Amino acid sequence: RLSADYLRALPKAEVHCHLEGCVPPKTAVRLAERHGVALPAGARDGGDRYRFLNFDEGLEIYLAVCRSMQTAGDFEAVTYESLVTAAEGGLRYREIAFNPQNHPGLTYDEMVGGILAGARAAQEEAGVVSRIVVAINRQFGGEAALNLVRDVLAHPHPEVVAIGLDGDEKAGRPAEFVAAYDLARAAGLKLTAHAGEHGDFTEMVECLDLLGVDRIDHGYAALLDPALLARTVASQIPYSACWFIDYPELEVEGRRRDVAAMAAAGLNMCLNSDDPALIGPELHEDFIDAAVHLEWTVEDAEKYALAGIDASFADDATVGRLR
Ligand code: ADE
Ligand code: ZN
What we know:
Helix content is 50%, strand content 16%. The protein is α/β, with parallel strands linked by helices and 323 residues long. The chain has a single domain (4-322), classed as TIM Barrel (Alpha-Beta Barrel), CATH 3.20.20.140. An eight-stranded parallel beta sheet has the order 1-2-3-4-5-6-7-8. The model has no long low-confidence stretch (mean pLDDT 96). It binds adenine (ADE) and zinc ion. Belongs to the metallo-dependent hydrolases superfamily. Adenosine and AMP deaminases family. It comes from Amycolatopsis bartoniae. Residues 11-323 form the Adenosine deaminase domain. This is Adenine deaminase.
C-alpha cells in the first residue's frame, strides 16, 4: 500500500483547475468585504469549507467569489496563494483556468498580468510552473465568446496556451461556440472544453466534431455511449477527470466509480483538483484516495503523475523538463 507521504511528495501535474475555485473561504470573505460584495451564506458561515447542497449552489458561490476579485492585485494574491499551497502537496505544474467574463470590472490584460505576477512569485519560491487557459462561460453565449477570443488574440502572452469552456452545461450547446473555437485554433491556441460532467454524451460528441477540442474536461458521460468510448480510447485524447466532488446530490462514490470505469476502459485520463477550495481538496488528496480505491502500485502512481504532464498544453521543452 502506497504511503500518503510518498503520494504527497510525488511530483504531480494537473491541467484542470479553476483559479476562482482555489480561493479559500477566509480569503473570499476578506476580498468581498474590501470590495463591498455580498457573498451567499454558504460562503460566509462554513468555516474552512464552503457550504452548498448541489452544483448550482456551488456555481453561485463560485460566481460570487469571481465578483470579489476586482483588481490585478487580487488576481496576483489569489494565484500566488493557491500555487504555493498546491506545491506543498507536490504539485509541479498547473494549467490555471480563469473566467474573464465573470470579472466585468477588469480588462483582460489586468487579469492576466495579475495571474502572471502571482505565478512568477510562486515559481521562484516553490518551483511550481504554470500556464493559463482562458475559459469561456457558456451562459454568456457565442457572440460574447467570440469577443473574448478576439480580446485574447489582441493581447498575446506566451503563457496563455488554450481556451476552454465551462459553467452551466444547461446554458448553451457547444455549437454556439464554433466561431470562437475556430478563431482560437487559427491563432495557434489549444482547445479544451468541459463536457459530460452533468450534461449528456452528445455534448462531448459536439465538442469533438464541431469545436475540434484537443482535450475533454470531465467527460464521465462517455461511459454511457459505446461508440464515443471506443472512439476516444482509439484517439487517446486526454480526459481531465476530477476524483473528489462535494456535491451531496451526486455523492463521491458515484464519481469514484465513473473514474475507475474510465481508467479500466483504457481512456487517456489524468486526475485534477478542479476547484480545490470549493469542490474538492488539493491534488495530493485525490492521489491518496485514488491509490486506496484503485489499489495503485508505484507504477500506477507514476503513470498518473506523468499523465497530467502529458495532457498539458505547455511547449515541448517545458514538458520535457517536467517529465
Ligand atoms: N466552473 C468552475 N468549476 C466548474 C466545474 N466543475 N464545472 C463547470 N464550470 C465550472
Ligand atoms: Zn472544471
